[in-house]
C-alpha cells in the first residue's frame, strides 16, 4: 500500500521503528529455532508436530478454497 496509496494516513507506527521490527523478527526466529532443534528443552514431540502439521494442512486447504473463490469473481 505504500506504493499504491502513498498519501494514505498511517495511524500505527511500530515501536522502535526498524530496530523494533528487527528485534521482533530475531525473537520470533529464536523461539522457532528452539522448538525445532531436536535436543532443545522446548523441542516439539510427535503429538505436537502432528498438531502443527494439521494446522498447516487446514491453512493450505483454506488458502486454496479462498483463492478459488477470488478468481471466480
Which helices and strands occur, and which strands form pairs?
Elements lengths: L16 H20 L9 H27 L1
Could you say which overall geometry the principal axes of the C-alpha atoms support?
flat
**What radius of gyration results from the CA coordinates?**
19 Å
The unreliable regions are none
How many distinct beta strands?
Answer: 0
State the secondary-structure class. mainly alpha
The tally of structural domains comes to 1
Distance between the termini: 22 Å
Number of helices: 2
One letter per element, helices H and strands E, the order comes to HH
Strand content: under 5%
Mean pLDDT: 87
Residues in helix, %? 55-70%
Q: Mind describing the biggest β-sheet?
A: none
Quick summary:
Helix content is 64%, strand content 0%. The chain has one domain. The chain is mainly α and 73 residues long.
